[in-house]
UniProtKB/TrEMBL annotation:
The record's free-text note on cofactor binding: Binds 1 FMN per subunit.
A GO MF term: phosphopantothenate--cysteine ligase activity
Cofactor(s) this protein requires: FMN; Mg(2+)
Protein name stated in the entry: Coenzyme A biosynthesis bifunctional protein CoaBC
Lineage: Bacteria, Bacillati, Bacillota, Negativicutes, Acidaminococcales
Gene Ontology cellular-component annotations: phosphopantothenoylcysteine decarboxylase complex
Similarity comment text for this entry: In the C-terminal section; belongs to the PPC synthetase family.
Domain Flavoprotein span(s) in chain numbering: 5-176
Residues the record marks as active site: 157
Domain DNA/pantothenate metabolism flavoprotein C-terminal, residue spans: 186-396
UniProt gene name: coaBC
Keywords (A to Z) from UniProt: Decarboxylase, Flavoprotein, FMN, Ligase, Lyase, Magnesium, Metal-binding, Multifunctional enzyme
Length: 398
């Protein structure tokens, strides 16, 4: 998303300016071209020379510089930019931008640029929470500008609270996601992904579960968010860190997953059910830990769980429904049956007995199966590549 993007980075005077040096470097590594505009105050923390070397471009500070790179510098910078990013944004530049004040180069560039703008406020908590700053931030939001919420934690002034500039990697991720929501091929789509296995309690410490790691579903959620979709990931217990820019809902049992899925189904465009859902739950959950007895066997009675996907198949209106089928035998026949039984638009079938396929691997070997009997077979791919190939296919079904 950042490749070839022209970014004007406004840097204003707060201690967090040092983080912006790393930010420039990271934006460039992602393929963006960066021109830095500093306020006078910012130059007291880090010299323009540092930003010049890191950005590979001259740094602009003053309106009154005789050696201008452009003819009318503030207009030229505003025209050049695809995107303006202000990080760190002080209360001062926020106030100026919100009220149309143009009394230095950066504030003038901001006023002259009818371009997407992202502000990353960073300041003392009291300054941030002051009604004047809050009102100014709201004004910026009304103008259609984007505000990245500051982090919380220890601040340079010795207090602890909201007002920290997010880490450069987080800012880059935020900018990438913003661009994806504007330009990505899945922008505007609500996608619901389920992942990992559900667990059915036996007693307070034990459960019936399966070996699903969640890797496949998490890869689908990541790929969809990177392509600009609004993604909700409903996940059973998993050790994986969820991808950024995804709303995560953690559940444990099949019933909890069903409730979470049904709540969101109406507004969803695409459902991808990569979760390994427990088909049975304990008839009775012991209140206390079950003790070993002298008997040779312990009998657990299991009741059938509802089939979430089948329910969705019955409820479906506009939604594209994609199921997964992890099989150890008769892969194609089983998958084809599921498409019909659950009223699906396609199924991703994988034979979990193949090397490099299924639970816990970073790769998968899949076939896409469609209601008309068409089957597309793929070589072994990373789960992220499977996810992107799947999303390409789903696009043709929308
Ligand atoms: O019928 P089977 O469990 O093999 O089908 C797998 C597909 O159905 C997966 O997409 C899985 O997430 C979904 N499923 C479900 N509810 C269940 C069982 C499976 O949504 N109770």
């Amino acid at each position: 998303m950042l490749r070839g993007k022209k970014i004007v980075l406004g840097v204003t005077g707060g201690i967090a300016v040092y983080k912006s040096v790393d930010l420039v470097s990271r934006l460039r590594k992602q393929g963006a071209e960066v021109r830095v505009v500093m306020s006078e105050a910012a130059t007291k923390f880090v010299t323009p020379l540092t930003f010049q070397e890191i950005s590979g471009n001259a740094v602009a500070v003053s309106m009154w510089n005789e050696k201008h790179e452009f003819r009318v510098e503030h207009i030229a910078l505003a025209e050049w930019a695809d995107l303006l990013l202000v990080a760190p944004a002080t209360a001062n530049i926020i106030a100026k931008a919100a009220n149309g004040i143009a009394d230095n180069l950066l504030s003038t560039v901001l006023l002259a640029a009818p371009k997407p703008m992202i502000f990353c406020p960073a300041m003392n908590t009291n300054m941030l929470l002051h009604p004047a700053t809050q009102e100014n931030l709201n004004k910026l939001r009304k103008f259609g500008y984007i505000i990245m919420e500051p982090g919380s934690g220890p601040l340079a002034c010795g207090t602890t609270g909201a007002g920290r500039l997010p880490e450069p990697a987080e800012i880059v991720e935020f900018v990438r996601y913003y661009l994806a929501t504007q330009e990505g091929d899945l922008r505007g789509k609500n996608i619901l992904v389920t992942a990992a296995g559900t667990r059915e309690p036996i007693d307070p410490v034990r459960f019936v579960g399966n070996r699903s790691s969640g890797k496949m579903g998490y890869a689908v959620a990541q790929a969809a968010a990177e392509r600009g979709a609004k993604v909700t990931l409903i996940s059973g217990p998993s050790a994986i860190t969820p991808p950024p820019n995804v709303e995560v809902i953690n559940v444990e049992t099949t019933f909890e997953m069903m409730e979470a899925v049904l709540q969101r189904f109406t507004d969803t465009d695409i459902v991808i059910k990569a979760a390994a859902v427990a088909d049975y739950r304990c008839h009775e959950i012991a209140k206390q830990k079950i003790k070993k007895t002298g008997d040779d066997a312990l009998v657990l009675v299991l009741d059938k769980n509802p089939d979430i996907l089948k329910r969705l198949g019955e409820l479906k209106t506009k939604q594209v429904l994609v199921g997964f089928a992890a099989e150890t035998q008769n892969l194609l026949e089983n998958a084809a049956q599921k498409i019909k039984k659950k009223n699906l638009d396609m199924i991703v079938a994988n034979d979990v007995t193949l090397p490099g396929a299924g639970f816990n691997y970073d790769t998968n070997v899949v076939k896409f199966i469609f209601p008309d009997g068409k089957i597309t077979t793929f070589e072994k791919m990373s789960k992220l590549a499977v996810a992107n190939t799947l999303l390409d296919e789903i696009k043709t079904l929308i």
